[in-house]
Amino acid sequence: MVEKKTDSRSPSRPQGKGPRSNINVGGRQDNRTHSKRPRNRRPFRERVKTFQSPTGDKVRVIVLGGLEEVGRNCTLIEYKNDIILIDLGLEFPGEDMPGVDYIIPNMEYLKGKEKNVRGVIITHGHYDHIGAIPHTVPHIGNPVVYALPIAAGIIKKRQTDFKTSKINVKEITVESELKLGAFKVHFFHINHNIPDSAGIVIETPAGVICHTGDWKFDYHPVGTKPADFHKIARLGSEGVTLLMGDSTNACIPGHQTSEKVIGEELRGIIEKAQGRVIVGTFASLLSRVKQIMEISEQLGRKVALAGYSMKTNVEIARELGFIHVSDKTLIPIERINDTPDEKVTIICTGAQGEKRAALARIANDEHRDITIKRGDTIIFSSSVIPGNEHSVQRIKDTFYRKRAKVIHNDIMDVHAGGHAKKEDIKLMLSLFKPKYYMPIEGNHFLLRENAEVAYSMGWKESDVFVADNGQVIELWKDSKDSNARITNEKVPSDHVFVDGLGVGDVSNVVLRDRKAMAEDGVVMVVVQVRKKTGQLVGMPDIVSRGFVHMKENTKLINDTRILVQKAVSDHDPKSQADPNYIRQNIRDEVGKFLFKKTERRPMILPVVIEV
Hints:
- The strands form five sheets. This protein has an eight-stranded mixed sheet. It has a six-stranded mixed sheet with strand order 8-9-10-11-12-18.
- The chain is built from 15 helices and 25 strands.
- Helix content is 27%, strand content 22%.
- By secondary structure, it is α/β, with parallel strands linked by helices.
- Helix 8 links the parallel strand 14 and strand 15 (344-348).
- The protein has helices at 44-47, 127-130, 133-136, 149-159, 229-238, 259-272, 286-298, 308-319, 358-363, 389-401, 422-432, 444-456, 508-520, 554-569, 579-598; strands at residues 59-65, 74-79, 82-86, 102-104, 117-121, 145-147, 169-171, 178-180, 183-189, 198-204, 207-211, 242-246, 277-280, 302-306, 344-348, 377-380, 405-407, 436-440, 471-477, 482-490, 496-499, 502-503, 522-529, 536-545, 603-610.
- The longest helix is centred in the C-terminal third of the chain and has 20 residues, at 579-598.
């Protein structure tokens, strides 16, 4: 089961002086109109540099992130000179992105249009929907960010870790109505695995657009009400032009499990545990954290929290009245050894195997206050995000070796996803009855699975829009009805990488170099040459890192050194020495030689010192 909430990796760690201002933001003008004039056939990269405001009465819907990945969710809706954004999330990097902290949506389309942005509307408080706010909002005119209480609290708290300009966060309720330029925005309550989750209704001049956000139907949710079926059905009866629906679990048959079922399982496990209970879960999965804390209190256990984001989110949830436990129930993590083991529950981050998160440090005996004992019960109350399987299994194996009792979702129902399955999507479509349907939030195969659900319910393929990031959807009204279509126009939506303090300054070229060094190593060649003649001074110095062990490959290193001597001497001695030519010649000759000898391609770094 795919679950995509991972703020336990804590991308909100303090960033020193904050991100640099070289983020790719803003947009460009598009010279194309919707007339029948011949289309400009300039290359795409050149054409996207000149975006114009839309002509006529068309509403443009552009998903800037979330149509080709799990995460980085961001939807832009534009009508003439009015723009609103739904969510500004981050995506965690894959294994092919070494050194990258996370990825955020590209705001290039908004360059020159900052004054048109009427607001940013947040569906809920998970990082894949709010994580890009500190990096993007200051650069798009600093519009108001509208969010329900839990999400607003997390956004404000996270903002203290960044030294960017102050962000104007306005707290709203699910009953709020917003007038943002030409758009009227209101909300409908929906279930997810974090409180204050809402779908968004946007009344536009071209018809009604509904955006589900992340959702599931839970008839017995924790700490909140079931979804507002009455409002959803009323919206459907009044007419919805375009429904944009979550695809994260669209490939899984059936209905999503209720949090009530998970709570009953957890109660049984904690009640029977003879020693400490250590639960690893997402820090943002507050409904689960609430259950564990309140069950532990009812059973007479003390609760300790491990992990910065876990402590922060619980603090916010308690302040807003979502989690109800006594101050006496919570104990500092350093006091757990003063409490009998059978009276202790520890809730921590790191269920995805993150190296520096609390659960990994506990498993590896690196935690200052927690050492695993035989008799401890370890619960992994989360699904495994694709790509993290090996890391999670390694931590599980470590706990098994220490003879702890390990429980995870393959053994018992200790986790329920926060996303609708096939049968839930069918019910949502039946209630909304949209004229057009657009799967969002997922990899392409998930969008296609979501579309198949719609086809099975009678929607035509022409009325279901499976788009790519940046692809423009147009809505308009004629004399009879609202209409929509998917176009071939695309706006910039490529990755913007956040790496330490840098935002947008890591390119695909940099990543390619990092991958090359990681896969085949690096060979540094240092030579000294006469400034006027380019004549070699002394012997070249060869340094290998991650390529070959130099002491065990002395012949290869010596042969390379001789080759470098020849490469440096291979120029007209009467001409002025050109360091760039020498560097390029070394790179070419050494690269070809080492590949011939080893069939590997290390990165060659020539260093030419003129004396």
